[in-house]
Write the structure tokens for this entry.
Amino acid sequence: MSFGLNNFLKKYLPTSLFYRSLIIVATPTIILQIITTVVFFDSIWIKANKGLTRSLIGELKTLSDIYTGDDLSQIDYLTEQFKYNFDFVINISDEELPTVSKERKYSPMDRSLRRELKSVFGNSNYWFNTVKYEDVVEIRVRSNDRTIQVLFPRERVAPSSVRLFIFWITLPSILLISIAIIFLKNQTKPIVNLAKAAERFGKGDFVSGIRPSGASEIRKAAYEFDRMAKRIDKHLKQRSEMLSGISHDLRTPLTRLKLQLAMLNQKELSGKMSKDIDEMEGMLNSYLQFAKSQVQEETMATNINKLFNEIAYEKNTKNLYLDLQIEIVLVARKNALKRCFNNIIENGLSYARNVYVNMSKSKNNLNIFISDDGPGIPLNQYKNVFKPFFRLDQSRNLNHIGVGLGMSIAEDIIRSHGGNIELSKSKYKGLQVRISLPL
């Protein structure tokens, strides 16, 4: 039973903290107002209205009994007393009672009048109208073949204004809920800002200037997150600087070796050694490229179509086919995405004849498909391909002169943008790389 209730609450209740907190605050207030309204109508308004109505009908019954007598002077005297003491307007006529009822079906005042008049005068000896005049109620009763018309103030049967009561019961509720909304916004705003900062940091954006605010627990969480982000950023910068220093130190002896090989008379030996040095330089460049993919880069509005067109222009090959029917602009790190797409396309062009790129758009994601007609990759090696320094010796090498970092760099860039990258068999019998990026 508890499991079913949890599913019901998860399905129909809002998911955001602000609206859930608002429900927690507003629900008791609304329930309290409902209970107060019910108690007021049941215990105060209805009972008071019933007592006033019964007293009024008793006065009308007395007036009706007076007109059954024959002493006209006494009748005139008592009529004047009723007019003066009870603020009645009394008219006597020989007209029949109206046949069209003016009773309101759901009005507590009309129900109370009908009940009391029926019990005193019978079913067909009365008629009343509570809507013809704004502040006056009209009642007509039959007595001795005559109709007695009585007009009296509405407050004689209505102890208080229902509209005024509803106004004063609703206004405080609206005021209290409005104050609660203002306070809840101030309390949930720091949490929302912290969540946005964490999302940006998770996508590789540089996060700085987080100002802790709100409750003490939220302030502490924001403060610790800021410290963590700064430590990670410092670590990435130190690693990048260290690799740049290593690169500089290694390039110097490699350059000297190249110069010395160029001066050797044994051209065959120097040629082989030059190839080894070139491979070492390629490996070094791959290491640096992998490190650069971790370095913080500012995000900007990036046109994905123009990005692929730039890659196609730089490749300058007829074997790369772009099918970009939709135009997409993402807030992303342009150079990182270009490096990612370039690595995947370069692998396809190296080990297949043709590479095909197309895009599709779903509700919340951009899907990019990069397919080729090459030999493909065994299914059991799909996960290993994304491991750093992993190289396939069978069927297809992802990097001829590299060290197996191309797909690792691509996956790292896509993951840092909050996306996903998957491998599958393409319709061209080769490999298909599916990239999903959040819009």
About this structure: The CA atoms of residues 209 and 308 lie 34 Å apart. The longest strand covers residues 136-143. The longest helix spans residues 17-66. Residues 394-401 have pLDDT under 50 and may be disordered.
